[in-house]
Amino acid sequence: MSYTIALNFEDGVTRFIGCKEGETVLDAAYRQKVNLPMDCSDGVCGTCKGHCEQGEFDMGDEYLEEALSDEEAAEGQVLTCQMVPSSDCVIQVPVASSLCKTQVGKIEGTLAVVEQLSEDSIELAVDLDEGAELAFLPGQYIHIDVPGGEGHRSYSFSSKPGERRATFLIRNIPNGVMSGYLTRQAKVGDRLSLTGPLGSFYLREITRPVLMLAGGTGLAPFLSMLEQLAEKGSDQPMHLIYGVNKDDHLVKVDALDAFAEKLPTFTYSTVVVDEASQHPRKGYVTHHMDAEVLHDGDIDVYLCGPPPMVDAVLKHFDAEGIVPQSFHYEKFTPNQAPGEAS
Fold first, then answer.
1. Most buried among 50, 68, 274, 275, by the most CB within 10 A?
2. Is the pLDDT confidence value at 341 over 90?
3. pTM of the complete model beyond 0.85
4. Final residue of a structural domain among 67, 100, 133
C-alpha cells in the first residue's frame, strides 16, 4: 500500500510524493529526490519539523520533547523523520522548495476545448499528455505558457485532481495576452505547456460548516473543490455565494445545480451587482451573508475573487465582529496568478 503526501513549501510550490506503508515521510521524500530539512533523522534536533494539515499518521515515541513538545504535537506539528502516514496527508514545509532541491513540475498538453461562456469568461480544456502526472489540491492554480513566447498566465483548476482533462475558467480581458490568443488564434490541437501546481488556497478537511464566496471567474477553484466533494461526500452544511457584475456573467450554473443534487448538504445563491438587473439578489456578496450561513462564526470560509471583493469581505467581517474558525482567501488580478496577487 502507498499513500500520497502533498508537501506544501513556503514559496507556494507543491510536490506530491508516494509513501510506502511503514515508511517515514522523510525517507519517502529522499527516495524521490526531495531533500526535506534534516540534521539527525533520529527525532532529536527538530530540524525536520512541519505541520500536518490533514491525514492520519503515527509519530511513535522515539523522539525527544525538545524536538517536538506535546503542545506542538497537539497542534498538528510533526517530525517528518518520525512520521509514518496511514492515509494520504498534506504537510506544510516551512522552507522554500529550492532549499530542498526540488522545483515545480512542468507538463505538456493539447488544447481540447475553448469556449466563450459569456462576454466575461472563457472555458479552456487541456488534454494532458499520456503518462503526464498532474496531482494538485482542489483550489490550487497552475501557470500556462502563452503560445508565441508571451510569458505565462496563471489560472485555478476548475476540474478535480487526477483527471486527464484539466479545465479552467479564464476572464476575458480586452487586449489581454491569453484572452487574445484564446479568442482569436487558439485552435483544437494546439500544444500548451503548464507549470505547477502552486498556491496555498485549497480545500482542507471539512469538519464544520463551510461558506464559499466566489467573484466572477473566482468560481473556478470552487468547482474543483465541489467535484472532489461530490465524489467523497460530506455531512457538513456548505453554502456558496457567487457574485458577478452582470446577469450574463453568471456561468456554470448548471454545474452548481448538479452539485446541489449530488451533495444534499450543498446550497448556493447568486448575486448580481448591476442595478438594472432583474435578478432577485442584487448588490454584493456581503449583502447576502445571512445569519444561517454564518453559523455564529463556527465556519470555515473560502473566498476567491478580485481584490476589491476580497477587501470588502474582510472589512465586512471585521465590522460585524465575525471571526470564522478558519479563513482562506485568494485575490486575483488580470495577468497575475491568484497566489501572486495576495
1. 50
2. no
3. yes
4. 100
Residue 174 and residue 218 in one domain: no
Domain final residue pick, 45, 69, 100: 100
Inter-helix orientation angle 220-232/253-262, to 10°: 20
Task: List C-alpha distances in Å: 89 to 115, 158, 169.
Answer: 36, 22, 28
Number of domains in the chain: 3
CB atoms within 10 A of CB 234: 17
Residue 158: domain span:
105-198
**Cα–Cα distances in angstroms (integers) from residue 16 to residues 47, 137, 337, in the given order:** 21, 10, 21
Query: Do 330 and 216 fall into the same domain?
Result: yes
Note whether 154 and 53 are same-domain residues: no
Buried b (16+ CB within 10 A) or exposed e, 16-34: bbebeeebbbbbbbeeeeb
Q: Is the dihedral of CA 72, 77, 78, 79 positive or negative?
A: negative
Please give the C-alpha separations between residue 207 and each of 204, 236, 291, 300, 339, in angstroms, as whole numbers.
Answer: 9, 7, 19, 9, 25
Residues 96 and 125 in one domain: no
Query: To the nearest whole number, what is the mean pLDDT of the chain?
Result: 91
In this prediction, residue 334 has a pLDDT band, given cuts at 50, 70 and 90, of: low
pLDDT at 208 over 90: yes
CB 323 within 8 A of CB 234: no
* Together in a domain, 51 and 131: no
Residue 97 to residues 13, 104, 303, 306: CA-CA distances in angstroms? Answer: 6, 8, 26, 28
Q: Determine, yes or no, domain membership for 178.
A: yes
